[in-house]
Amino acid sequence: MEYLNAADVLPKELLKELSVYASGQLLYVPSAECKKPWGSKSGSKQYYEQRNSMIIDLYLKGMGIDELCECFHLSYDTIRKIIKR
User: Fold this and answer.
1) Which of 84, 4, 26 is nearest to 52 (CA)?
2) Residues 6 or more apart from 75 whose CB is under 8 A from it?
């Protein structure tokens, strides 16, 4: 992403209108493309969903929270949050 001078890109009428609201300010104009949900591009969302399902299954089968902490290298509170969902 690069900075562009608005005077070089925008029509004069729009530039004049923008200057009423944000004269001398830096503005960010988000892309018109649809944003993908978090983790969908890298696959991390799917990874965490599978991991959390596995934690819940093991807990329901009788594995204790302390054992789950050791198995998944997560804190006690994190395991509790996953189980409560």
Assistant:
1) 84
2) 69
CA distance 68 to 61: 12
How far apart are the C-alpha atoms of 39 and 47, rounded to whole Å? 9
For residues 28 and 15, what is the distance between their CA atoms, to the nearest angstrom?
A: 14
> How long, in residues, is the chain?
85
The residue ranges of every structural domain in the chain are: 6-32+39-84
Sign of the alpha-carbon dihedral angle for 20, 26, 29, 35 = negative
Q: Cα–Cα distance between 2 and 79 in angstroms, integer? A: 42
**pLDDT tens-digit map of 27-40:** 888 877 777 888 88
pTM reported for the whole predicted model: 0.60
User: Which segment of 14-23, 28-37, 66-75 scores lowest on mean pLDDT?
Assistant: 28-37
Under DSSP, is residue 84 helix (H, G, I), strand (E, B) or coil?
A: helix
